[in-house]
């Protein structure tokens, strides 16, 4: 199933990128170039700002474009949310700014965490909230001109999914005990001869869930941008200005769609994290 | 299996700067984990905790306020009922009292009237009796006086019974004397 997914992604990317060999003279590698990470902030046509290079124990940890916007979104979140939390000290009635934040917080707590995790959901609310706001800010930040979408980087989504995986395992072990948790992974009442197969399947299942999370967020955030770039590049591929209104109009439509997707993917990632945590915590269902 | 595919695609795909679209940049992964965990720590301590606490407090506050309002409403209803009952009772009592006092007044009036009548009757009776007694007294006195005068006249007549002329004047003078009395 997942090899199929990767195939589809690969094909899509090739088609979207115009597969420079087939398309002839046009080099459309610039699309991927824009989507991928780099060691500079791209303000073209006004220029580029190169970012510093770091190494730690021989590992390249230099600040890249995606790292920069990730840190920026973290700072925005800290600033905005601490400002919101301070307003509660002044009065329990939220102001305009705090209400806007509060809606999202209540949504994550009451619509995502509570119904999906159930009893004992309070411990996971901070994680889910951070997850939701981090991805949401990243998605929206990617829609700002001259910025980059760090949530469309597989390294970022893979790490976020890994953290969800860890949260799921820690939640399960904390709630059911170490042996209880792994014993509970295998459903009750299956024939003994199936046990080895089921064990393999269930343990594989543990890893496929976060894998799907990572791929879903990455693919969704990448696809929209690729489509926008492809639509714009139509003008240059067809070498006519006549197509420009169509290209720009459709790109605008995709852009608006991306606004929706930005919110939706943050919701889906958080929602599925909550579902997986809920499954690990309450294994009987 | 997946990993191989990823790797193959990472090598083949894209712009060629580092690894391609599906290549995992270890540095970025490191930054992601670091940023996220720091964010979780900082927001958990300075944002989520106070905000969630405030929200919880507000919710319990609203809940308790609603309950208190409900209780107060119940109490008011009870009090109103009680007031109504007390009012009705008071009205009844007042009516009873009025009725009682009216009947009492009636009886007192009747008593007073009866007594007055009795007293007046008595007074009338005693007055009549007195008048009767006085009348009897006066009558008997008149009778005595008439007898005395008659005897007086008779004796005068007998004494001066000499001539007709003298008799006549005597009677006249006697009668005049009576008339004077």
| SSE topology string of chain B | HHH
Rg for CA atoms of chain B: 68 Å
| Assembly classification | heterodimer
Tell me the domain tally of chain A: 2
Number of continuous helical runs of chain B: 3
Strand count, sense and closure of the main sheet of chain A? 2 strands, antiparallel
Strand pairing plus helix content of chain B: what structural class? mainly alpha
> Which residues of chain A form runs of ≥5 with pLDDT under 50?
18-25
The largest sheet of chain B is: none
Number of strands of chain B: 0
Strand content of chain B: under 5%
Shape of chain A: globular
Q: What is the total domain count of chain B?
A: 1
Task: Spell out the helices and strands of chain A N to C.
Answer: HHHEEEEHHHHHHH
Spatial gap, N to C terminus of chain B: 175 Å
Q: What's the helix count of chain A?
A: 10
Helix content of chain A: over 70%
Give an overview of the whole structure:
The complex is a heterodimer of chains A (285) and B (181). Chain A is mostly helical. Chain A folds into two domains: 1-63, no CATH class; 64-281, no CATH class. Chain A has ten helices and four strands, in the order H-H-H-E-E-E-E-H-H-H-H-H-H-H. Chain A has a two-stranded antiparallel ribbon. In chain A, a hairpin with a 5-residue loop joins strand 1 (40-42) and strand 2. The longest helix of chain A is centred in the last third of the chain and has 44 residues, at 195-238. Chain B is mainly α. Chain B has one domain (2-9, 24-180). Chain B has helices at 2-12, 26-159, 164-180. The longest helix of chain B is centred in the middle third of the chain and has 134 residues, at 26-159. The model of chain B is unreliable at 1-18 (pLDDT under 50).
